Amino acid sequence: MLEEKIKEAAAELSTCKYVVVLSGAGISTESGIPDFRSPVSGLWSRANPEDFTIQSFLRNPGRLYEIGADFFQEMMNADPNSGHQAIGELEQKGLVKSVVTQNIDALHQKGGSQNVIEIHGSLEKARCLNCNWEENMDDVLAEINAGTVPPRCKECNDPVKPDVILFGEAMPPAYQEALYEARKADGMLVVGSSLVVSPANMLPQYVDKLVIVNREETPLDHKASIIMRESISDVLPRLKEEWLSLVQN
Ligand code: NAD
């Protein structure tokens, strides 16, 4: 049954001229990084979303680091899994044109993707909200481990913020690039996203052919021609093989 669906998905995507991948936190769970909304294992079963708002950061910048530093370190130490690698290879072979990701963990790049649009920013950097000074997260984490919480800007001494979008912040310019890619695309492969976070979940509406790989239902399932409610590692490496074999024959 799954094998059949993988073949159908590969056939569907192989008819497209411009395929964009839209990924969410679910692609990185098999790299050991919890997502937000999976039952039990998701972060929201043990953390409070209120602590991840810009208002909370401005009130008390140290709090985000007190509760998040271990999680940030985990993300920075994680390795890409077979899902990231399959997408990287599909881009190198010219079948996937770009990856729009809601993730902040930089694992697509580590898995071989080059054209990655990070619409929620990247945890690899931190930035000063006052003077825009940028610092590597490795250095920021070293500072925290040495007892400086919150870590401070080397230029103006204001607290630095991870270079990711907190709840309540405006979307970065990368979202305009993502919109452009979605409008240009005729096919989209959604992997590991609950598709409940806006505006990322607006992007699939622009494509004719939508394939979704996600363990749980999403609000856009009705728009998809093929849905695989399976683990990404069970689908993506096989989908890559099938898709490559169709275009090589
Ligand atoms: P989400 O937590 O809302 O949904 C993740 C979905 O992935 C769930 O529906 C779950 O069923 C599915 N899933 C989990 N593991 C899977 C697997 N191995 N195979 C198939 N499906 C799997 O995540 P979202 O839609 O990306 O949106 C929430 C936000 O999460 C984004 O803003 C993102 O920035 C943030 N986030 C990112 C990371 C990361 O960078 N790795 C981690 C946690 C949260």
Describe this structure as you would to a colleague:
This protein has 249 residues and is an alpha/beta fold. It folds into 2 domains: 1-33 and 80-120 and 170-249, Rossmann fold (3-Layer(aba) Sandwich), CATH 3.40.50; 36-77 and 122-164, 2-Layer Sandwich (SIR2/SIRT2 'Small Domain'). Helices cover 35% and strands 17% of the residues. The chain contains 8 helices and 9 strands. The strands form 2 sheets. Strands 3-2-1-7-8-9 form a 6-stranded parallel beta sheet, with helices on both faces. Helix 5 links the parallel strand 2 and strand 3. Helix 4 (82-92) packs parallel to helix 8 (232-248). The radius of gyration is 19 Å and the shape is elongated. Bound molecules: nicotinamide-adenine-dinucleotide (NAD). Nicotinamide-adenine-dinucleotide is lined by residues 24-26, 28-30, 33, 35-38, 42-43, 102-105, 120, 192-194, 196-197, 214-216, 231-232. Nicotinamide-adenine-dinucleotide binds next to loops.
